[in-house]
Amino acid sequence: MDIRKGDIVAWPTNLGWMMGPWLVYASLLNGASMALYNGAPVGSGFAKFVQDAKVTMLGVIPSIVRAWKSTNCTAGYDWSAIRCFGSTGEASNVDEYLWLMGRAHYKPIIEYCGGTEIGGGFITGSLLQAQSLAAFSTPAMGCCLFILGNDGYPIPQNVPGTGELALGPLVFGASNTLLNADHYEVYFKGMPLWKGRVLRRHGDVFERNSRGYYHAHGRADDTMNIGGIKVSSVEIERICNAVDSNVLETAAIGVPPSGGGPEQLVIAVVFKDPDNMKADLDQLKKSFNSAVQKNLNPLFRVSQAVPFSSLPRTATNKVMRRVLRQQLAQANQNPRL
Description:
Layout: E1 8-10, H1 19-28, E2 33-34, H2 44-52, E3 57-60, H3 62-71, E4 84-87, H4 94-102, E5 109-115, E6 120-124, E7 138-139, E8 145-147, E9 161-167, H5 183-187, E10 193-194, E11 197-198, E12 200-208, E13 214-219, E14 223-226, E15 229-232, H6 233-241, E16 247-255, E17 264-271, H7 281-295, E18 302-307, H8 321-333
Parallel strand pairs: 1-2, 1-3, 3-4, 4-5, 17-18
Antiparallel strand pairs: 5-6, 6-7, 8-9, 9-12, 10-11, 12-13, 14-15, 16-17
Helix pairs in contact: 3-4
């Protein structure tokens, strides 16, 4: 992120998430200041705070950017002091991030991905390299990355591909014990060997493209099996989010039918207007179907579009698709709920 003496750094976070300690140390060790905002960072109040504090480095997560864009709450505020954005926490979207760059005269966005359990990042963008929007350009210092193929073993480093990400076993700051689970079973059991060492499981799905850039596709446990084809929830959500201007966000969930059988694709929908919960869901379902079949796979079919006032999230703002899956599966078994 190239934080320097005199910089003013703002990153909505908390100390229970890795980015909390990161904000403290990255700012103060480099002679920069922290800009701390008391409240939710999703409205015009935060946009004014960024302006008034003359923030030079602003950290975001994609969900916040999506909220800013949908409400246009940053309009009229001067963010010209920003020279760099940072982004982490979720898979990002090219259109939304191009919009974000436009708030600060198209300053760069540096993607950063890591985990609290490894005490830092394992893949990042860099101001020293040409960047690709919503993509990572390099493994973090001291970290080796591997993308596992369908056979469960790493594909060659110079070959494009998509699969679950594994880390080299020696990572700066990585955990070696857990308080409430077996560390080996969580991170190493069943993982392949590399140069005589067992690789470390991380759980994200990543793509390495032909240009050498990496794209995040969400958690491996967020993948669904639709018609015998594995697909990431994030891929479907990116398409559905753009279908209707009234949609704030979506979550794609694979839900088993009450009588058993293949997973059915259900789209949980949050509307920009909370009073729009009774929109024409049948028409919206048809629109989702058309977009998914055109842009992703003609064999995929959306079985339901279900309205939600908001999506359940973790303390770090990640969508809890497992909770949604349980709620939707229960609703299928008990239609009156």
